[in-house]
Write a structure and sequence with these properties.
Elements: E1 8-13, H1 24-34, E2 38-42, H2 51-63, E3 67-71, H3 83-103, E4 107-110, E5 113-114, H4 119-139, E6 145-148, E7 156-157, H5 160-169, E8 177-178, H6 179-186, H7 192-206, H8 208-212, E9 214-218, E10 220-224, E11 227-232, H9 241-250, E12 255-259, H10 265-276
Parallel strand pairs: 1-2, 1-12, 2-3, 3-4, 4-6, 8-9, 9-12
Antiparallel strand pairs: 5-7, 10-11
Helix pairs in contact: 1-2, 2-3, 3-4, 5-7, 7-9
């Protein structure tokens, strides 16, 4: 487990909309100009960053004290019935973790997969894949944290208890807590009391270090009875972000908060100002 970061770092999922160029380096410059302090590098359409660029990104982020994470490609299903697709999914996570480590990223975030025809077997299959990934990274002396994300659709593997259990059973695995997904998954988990229960459940099962080095996703969200439909800006959604912010304060949560709203930096800035006060 990395050392405690001793604060909450707020940032965006990908390059801010207002960046001058669509490059990670430009994104880091804009994050710094805005007064934000974290960036999740989106490899969601594929890992297209070279090792040389990754080294430059690491240097720039360190100079500006910006915390980095990476998000692995969306095309991952560790529970695919086809072995080739499972192995390709493992390789996508490994590639993300390798370039992420060169960037100086602390975590690689990923969607584990789908339940498929045998939901009861999904956990064991996904667990085995993650154990294999972790073993390879360990042999490469790559300490990056693997973070399976809590997911927003009922067909997707990634309930709160599933990601907690994976974190309990596999070394160097911790949750990516997407509170918007948890809300959309069942239409609940959207009050001070429920946010508090989520944090305390993580702390009770994984220890205080899990909430002292948390990785969190947040956005507005629209959903149906089947779960997540589309991300929204926070003020256009029913998500009670003011109560959520209060829980983070009351539970002394530390780590990284990544905003995935369509307006990215606008909601990220709003949340940071709510948490720290107008002086930000």
């Amino acid at each position: 487990m990395p050392s405690y970061v001793k604060k909450l770092y707020f940032g965006t999922a990908g390059i801010p909309r207002s960046s001058k160029e669509s490059s990670t380096e430009s994104g880091l410059e804009r994050i710094n100009e805005l007064g934000l302090d974290s960036l999740e590098i989106e490899f969601v359409r594929g890992v297209k960053m070279s090792a040389d660029t990754a080294q430059v990104v690491k240097k720039r982020a360190k100079e500006k004290n910006i915390k980095l994470s990476v998000h692995a490609p969306y095309f991952i299903n560790l529970n695919s019935p086809e072995e080739g697709k499972r192995l390709a999914s493992q390789e996508r996570i490994l590639h993300s973790a390798r370039i992420g480590y060169l960037c100086g990223a602390e975590s690689v975030i990923f969607h584990p997969g789908f339940y498929g025809k045998n939901p009861k077997e999904a956990y064991q299959i996904i667990k085995k894949s993650l154990q294999q990934i972790r073993s390879i990274l360990k042999s490469e002396n790559n300490p990056i944290m693997l973070r399976p994300e809590t997911m927003g659709k009922q067909s997707q593997f990634g309930s709160l208890i599933e990601v907690i259990n994976l974190s309990l059973e596999i070394d160097n695995v911790q949750p990516c807590l997407d509170f918007s997904h948890l809300h959309a998954r069942n239409g609940k988990w959207n009050s001070y009391e429920e946010f508090y229960k989520i944090i305390k459940k993580v702390e009770r099962n994984l220890g205080k270090e899990a909430i002292k080095n948390a990785h969190i996703h947040i956005s507005g969200i629209d959903y149906t009875e089947k779960g997540e439909k589309v991300h929204l800006n926070l003020k256009e959604s029913d998500f009670r972000y003011d109560e959520w912010i209060q829980v983070l304060k009351d539970c002394s949560v530390e780590g990284i908060v990544i905003c995935e709203s369509p307006n990215l930096e606008l909601d990220a800035l709003m949340l940071k100002r709510l948490y720290y006060g107008e002086e930000g």
